[in-house]
Design a protein that fits this description.
single chain; globular; 372 residues; alpha/beta; 14 helices; 7-stranded parallel beta sheet; 41% helix
């Protein structure tokens, strides 16, 4: 099997890029040739996929352009040279759909969306329901997203839940170390991650626990705004922003450096950062986003309402002072990981979905015959 994987940008060190790398490695191990079409790919991900084992291949077509016609030409060139079985598209944004509606392709096109596709995702196309009909199947990252896709977008074609997973074989210890911290957070510094609520909650907590600290790893456009907020709250000396990090070489040191990890996201598809900490046995606190309820389980006791500063502060305090509660969080999260998010499970889900789509034979790509 030969497939095209279209993701316009793999230049960052985020969870979505991690997921693409992990999935493509699994496909290569299954003997599949994956042609990745992207504007740019970060050297870390290229190295990760180059090292993947298996009888398949991973090829990179870096376009270095934002011109849709360059993407179309590249896809056509690959399809001319190879017999393509299907094309995988991620994410479901206007740029990708503009490429798809240019022409009718002779192979099925599958979508993959790492978010929960809810109305909170402000970057999604307004006419998403119409755009989705270009797809012959859809991969979702949690079961709540499938409900949204069926009920709100009225997508009636095949949907497959594929569990996010870890590239456990690639993590390694280095001499990198971080200061020990009470709380840790791994997050892009952007509005949808709800970090202002986390800082507010920590501010309330810090009045009672004067030695508590929090470390935040990640980069993004909201860095300066969050720094200013921590100054306004009087906690700047106890909030440490560590910036960008290597997703494989620094990850174990990050896990070791904080007692409790927190996600304050406003919405989440299936966040890799919390999946890592669940696997490593860290006590976790999370907002009730669709993706994190899926990772931890809907009845996980460390879940709190979204954008609720006081509930988050109270949960941070309970987790900090109650060792039995911490231990229960650790046990439940680890059990959940091993039952649902193992690489072998993800491997089987991906192959099952692609096989079903190819055997269907009834796909119809009804793209408009107009140029973007």
């Amino acid at each position: 099997m030969k497939i095209i994987w279209l993701t316009p940008d793999l230049s960052k060190l985020g969870g979505s890029e991690y997921m693409v790398s992990a999935f493509c490695r699994l496909l290569k191990s299954a003997g599949i040739h994956v042609h990745i079409v992207t504007r740019a790919i970060h050297p870390v991900w290229k190295s990760v996929m180059d090292k993947a084992s298996g009888s398949g291949q991973i090829s990179f077509a870096e376009i270095h352009s934002n011109d849709i016609n360059d993407y179309i030409h590249t896809i056509d060139t690959i399809a001319t040279r190879f017999t393509i079985s299907l094309m995988q598209v991620m994410p479901l944004e206007s740029f990708c759909f503009d490429i798809l509606r240019y022409k009718q392709y002779g192979f099925p096109i599958c979508g993959l969306e790492p978010t929960d596709l809810s109305n909170h995702c402000w970057w999604l196309p307004e006419n998403m329901q119409e755009h989705m009909q270009f797809l012959d199947g859809l991969i979702v990252m949690n079961p709540y997203t499938e409900i949204i896709v069926r009920n709100e977008y009225h997508f009636n074609k095949p949907i497959q839940l594929v569990s996010n997973t870890l590239m456990n074989d690639l993590y390694k210890r280095t001499d990198r170390s971080y200061p020990q911290s009470t709380f840790g957070c791994i997050s892009r510094l952007s509005a949808e991650k709800g970090l202002e609520y986390l800082l507010g909650a920590f501010s309330l907590l810090s009045k009672r626990y004067t030695t508590a600290t929090i470390c935040i790893w990640g980069e993004g456009d909201d860095h300066e705004r969050l720094l200013q907020q921590s100054r306004m709250l009087g906690i700047a000396d106890r909030v440490h922003f560590h910036g960008a990090f290597h997703p494989l070489e620094d990850s174990l040191s990050i896990s070791d450096s904080a007692e409790i990890f927190i996600s304050s996201s406003l919405f989440e598809g299936c966040g890799i950062a919390m999946l890592e900490q669940a696997y490593r046995g860290k006590p976790l606190i999370s907002t009730m986003t669709h993706g994190l309820k899926w990772i931890l389980g809907a009845d996980y006791p460390g879940l709190i309402p979204i954008a609720d500063t006081h509930s988050l502060s109270k949960m941070m305090e309970q987790t900090l002072i109650n060792p039995l509660f911490r231990r229960s969080l650790t046990t439940l999260a680890q059990q959940r990981f091993h039952s649902i998010f193992s690489p072998s499970r993800t491997y089987n889900q991906l192959l099952s979905f692609y096989t079903d789509v190819l055997q269907n034979k009834s796909y119809e790509n009804l793209q408009y015959q107009t140029k973007p």
